[in-house]
Amino acid sequence: MAGEPTGGQTEYIQHHLHHLQVSVGSGKFWTLNVDSIFFLLLLSAIFLFVFLRVARRATAGVPGKLQCAVELLVTFVDGLVRETFHGSTRFIAPLAVTIFCLVFMMNFMDMLPVDLLPSLWAKGHAVVGLNPHHAFLRVVPTADLNGTIGMSLGVFLLIQVYGVSHKGPKLFFQEMLTAPFHATGVVGKILLAPANLLLRIIEELVRPLSLSLRLFGNMYAGELIFILIALMTFNASWASKLTYVMLPMQFVADFVWTAFHILVITLQAFIFMMLTVVYLSMAATKH
Question: Is residue 2 part of a domain?
């Protein structure tokens, strides 16, 4: 267990759900979740290393297993993008592949044993003379709301850039006042402009909220369920007396939830990717 919490099951859960944080600025104005940032950068580096390595060693002859897997993934995503985005996919297809792979890799961190990395982190603290009870570490970046909101805001900004670049500034801002309710004549357009603008603002704000909260909610719930399964053999008196019963139950529960959660993490990565492509396609389409 991470840090071997002694305050019971509640402290065990709180310990696992606490981020490794660093406060910067005067009066601790800005708090960074260092663990989420670290694993995001680490997984991004692994993604770049693998794909660049495959690209440089790609052959027209008999491909290796890794090249086959990458080619199948790229071909599959490129086909989906071509069916969804009606325009040049030179940028959209690589973006979709990157989003899917990174989100999937971040989600997949939830498949690691819940106490594996936190316990190693706590032992490292103990080796250097620090208190292992203060060794906080969360390894799933997508279970951090800050991370999912950050990715969603990136998609939101990209949507606006694509809208302006494909429609031009005049048409882009004109659509905010003239759609979805259309009117003929200057008076009708002026009367409907406030309602159109309000609906457009709501529509734009809902997109990053839906992207971030959906991904965060699923991954946070999955992480919490793994923690609760780990509590089935927590050092309690009733559990120690039923060890031979609880261990098989814990194994079965963990196996079933892991098998189901693999579908969840894949589906969430796919949904995040597809919604990004759909939003960009809508932004580039003229009403």
Answer: no
How far is residue 274's CA from residue 266's CA, in Å, rounded to a whole number? 12
Condensed to tens digits (0 to 9), the pLDDT of residues 77-131 reads 999 999 998 878 789 999 999 999 999 999 999 999 998 999 999 999 888 888 8
Task: With respect to residue 1, please indicate whether it lies within any of the assigned structural domains.
Answer: no
- Structural contact between residues 87 and 162, judged by C-beta atoms closer than 8 angstroms: no
Q: Is residue 155 part of a domain?
A: yes
Q: What is the CB neighbour count within 10 angstroms for residue 188?
A: 12
Measured in degrees and rounded to the nearest 5, phi and psi for residue 31 equal -110, 125
Range of 234's domain?
9-284
Is 100 contained in some domain?
yes
Residue 28 has pLDDT above 80, yes or no: no
Q: Could you list the active site residues?
A: 210, 214, 218
- The domain total for the chain is 1
Cα–Cα dist 265/111, whole Å: 10
pTM, two decimal places: 0.89
- Identify the residue whose tokens are 């905010």: 176
